[in-house]
Structures are given as C-alpha cells and as structure tokens.
Amino acid sequence: MNASTKLFSAGAVGALATANALRPVERGLLSFPSFAAGAVTSEIPLVHAAGHGAAAAGLAAWGGLRTRRGRIGLGLTGAACAGALALHREAQAAGSQLEQALVDALGADYRSGIVLPPHPEDGREKVSRVPVLVATFSSRRRYLRDEDVPFGPFGRRNQLDVWARPDLPTDTVAPVVLQVHGGAWVWGGKTGQAYPLLSHLVERGWICVAVNYRLSPRSTWPDQLVDVKRALAWVKDNIGGYGGDPGFVAVTGGSAGGHLSSLVALTAGDPAFQPGFEDVDTAVQAAVPFYGVYDWTGSHPGHPGMVPFLQRDVVKRALGDHPEAFAQASPIERVHAGAPPFFLLHGDRDVLVPVEQARAFAGRLRAVSRAPVAYAELHGAHHAFDVLSSTRTAHAVQAVERFLGAAYGRHLAGRVRGAPTAPP
C-alpha cells in the first residue's frame, strides 16, 4: 500500500469516526459499535484530531499527495479535524448546561447552601491532587481504604470497596456516596467505573463505596436490586467505623447502575426488594443517575432490543404475561412525592438509552416529587460519556459535587431544625 492509499484510508477512517460521533447510528445492531466508537471520539476529540492530523502530515511528507486519492484523503482528514473541534466546543459547553440545570432546580443562590464535608485540620492541600482530567485507574489504589468487604451471602458478587482520603480520620462524620456499576445487569463490577467521579469526591472529603451485585442470566431480577439494597444496609450499619455519616448516603450509577440507583432512591423500605431485611432503613438522601434506564415496559422510547433482552436474560418472564413485574422495575412508574433530591444526567446522542426516556422521567419526577429535581441534557454526549476523564466529565463531576453539597447542606439544616431532611 503506497503513501497515497494510506493517506486516503486514514482520512476516510478519521472522517467516518468524526461523523459517527456527530450523528451516531440510532437503530439496529450497528448502534452498539456506533456507541463504542462515538463515545471515545466525542470525549477526546482533540486527541482524535491530533492523531489523524499527525498521521496525515507524515504520509503527505512521504509522497501521499502525488495522486488525487491522496489529496482526497488529506481533505477528509481536514474535515475530520474540523468536526473534532466542533465536538470539543460541545464538550466545553457542558459546564454552562450543568450549571443551568442546577440553578433551575435549586435556585440562583444555591451555592450559598453548599456544605463541604469535614476534612483533616492540615487541609486538603497536604494531599497530592490528581486533576480530574488525568484521573486514572491509580485512583483506586490511592484512595482504597478497604477492599472486597463482604456485605451478603453471595461471595464476590456481594463485596464492596470503601474509598476515602488516606488522611481522613475514622472519627470524623463525612457524607457518603454509594456507587452502583453499570453493565446491562449482566456484567461489570465495582472496579473500572466512575473513577473520575469517585476520585474527585473522595479528594473533596467524601467517603465513597463501590458495590458488586449478582448478575443475570445466572441470577434473576430483582436479585440485582436486592443486593444493592443489602449493600446500602451494610453502609448504614458500618460506615461510621470509616468516618462516614450513616445519616447522609447518596446513591449514583450509570446505565444499569443509573436504573438501580434510581430504584433504590424510590423504593425505600419496599419489602418486595428487601427479603429478610424488610425492616431495615434503606432511604437515601440524594440520587444522581447517569444515562439511566427508566422504563422496562416499552411505554417510552428505548432501544428496540431492550425489552426482548430483559424478557430473555434478566426478568426471564414475558412482558405480556407479567406486566406488573416490569412496571415495578421501572423507575418512571415508581415516582412519588417523598422521593429524595435527584440530579439526572443524560447525553442527547445516547443511542442505547434514548434521551427522550430521561426527559420523560425528569418530567414525571418534577410533577410529583416535593424535593428538587435537576435534569442536565448534555449536548453531544453519548452513553457512558463519563468513563473517560474528559472535559465534559470534568464539568459533570464538579456539578455533581455542587449538587451533593447542596443536598448535604439541606440535610444538615434539617437536622439543626429537628425537621425531616427529606419529604415525608
């Protein structure tokens, strides 16, 4: 393959990747590779542009422009780089979109109500900071306080990790975040997801707990939700020993984790999901679902393969024969006035869980809940956008911290007044 052909091929690949990030495939089997490629390109567009630009320059220097094919390839590379710059501008705009969502839900002066967690007297500056933009898997090693802690009877699928600053005293009272991993209810685990969010919150003084849960098809719904609630019960009983406040626990997660975290927030004390621990308090004080699945009934826009997949591998029952089981598992069907504060984040280019489903859930929550409901629809974001420590992710985790800080402040104010900290 000569330099001209290589230049054309490289340009075509770069232009196709950029086009897919801008307009992903929304239907059919191609939606899955479209999501995987689009999420990467849209989150690190400058790296994408730099790589293809450098390759094109090198091939041009080696004679790639001697033929018309090579010149077309250079033009395609230019188009790919221009598209990547547009993607970068979209990511930068996430900051204002997220801030507006918080202002709309909490009020223009919401920052005055933010309360930071307690932290060591020597200050946060004494701990080496890793900016969210370069957060890596080393975050877990840096902040892991306790690993593979059992919380239930099902082996490694009932284990959790506790993250905390290494200098956070165990006799402090820090707010807690429970992280629920995604993976379509059939794969995944407590390692490898939400590291930018967890590392940022822990550095700011929060305690974070990442949990495993049983997976289908070996297990059957609602085993997943039962396990997350069992982990929450463990947190409330034991997190005080790590310096955590069992009275303030927020829950978060992405995709299937967004679905589970939403249900946890909406089904506190529901005996159907707490077999053997029906009387345990499983209320949370805030919920932050990322690109969650909010409807299992097919009543709202969703991926065409979702309901068949749930029937076959997760619920293992037919929707037509057991509609109540699918409705009970749908957060959009479980909203109520006493829901805790919610902050929903969803990308408008999500091809796995269409953004219309998040809009409908946010609208239903706002119509019913007495607590604040913030909804940020991120322009240009794909499913799982926060896996990479990107510009958009940096804006998102900082906004989540502000939301949780406001919820924590509201909770503490309620304690001082002796009033409930969440709607009854």
Describe this structure in words.
It is a single chain. With 424 residues, the protein is of the alpha/beta class. It folds into two domains: 3-90; 94-417, 3-Layer(aba) Sandwich (Rossmann fold). Helix content is 45%, strand content 12%. It has 13 helices and eight strands. It has helices spanning 3-22, 31-43, 45-64, 68-92, 94-106, 138-143, 195-203, 223-238, 256-266, 306-314, 323-328, 355-368, 391-417; strands spanning 144-150, 159-163, 174-180, 207-211, 244-254, 286-290, 342-347, 373-378. The protein has an eight-stranded mixed β-sheet with strand order 1-2-4-3-5-6-7-8, with helices on both faces. Helix 1 (3-22) packs across helix 2, helix 1 (3-22) runs parallel beside helix 4 (68-92) and helix 3 runs antiparallel to helix 4. The radius of gyration is 23 Å and the shape is globular.
Chart the SSEs and their pairings.
Layout: H1 3-22, H2 31-43, H3 45-64, H4 68-92, H5 94-106, H6 138-143, E1 144-150, E2 159-163, E3 174-180, H7 195-203, E4 207-211, H8 223-238, E5 244-254, H9 256-266, E6 286-290, H10 306-314, H11 323-328, E7 342-347, H12 355-368, E8 373-378, H13 391-417
Parallel strand pairs: 3-4, 3-5, 5-6, 6-7, 7-8
Antiparallel strand pairs: 1-2, 2-4
Helix pairs in contact: 1-2, 1-3, 1-4, 3-4, 5-13, 7-13, 8-9
Alpha-carbon Rg, integer: 23 Å
Strand order of the largest sheet: 1-2-4-3-5-6-7-8
**How many β-strand runs?**
8
CATH class of the largest domain: Alpha Beta
Dominant shape: globular
The helix content, as a percent range, equals: 40-55%
Going by helix content, strand content and strand pairing, the class is: alpha/beta
Low-confidence stretches: 122-133, 420-424
How much of the residues is beta strand, in percent? Answer: 5-15%
SSE order, as H and E? HHHHHHEEEHEHEHEHHEHEH
Mean pLDDT comes to: 92
Number of separate structural domains: 2
- CATH level 4 superfamily of the largest domain: Alpha/Beta hydrolase fold, catalytic domain
Q: Count the helices. How many?
A: 13
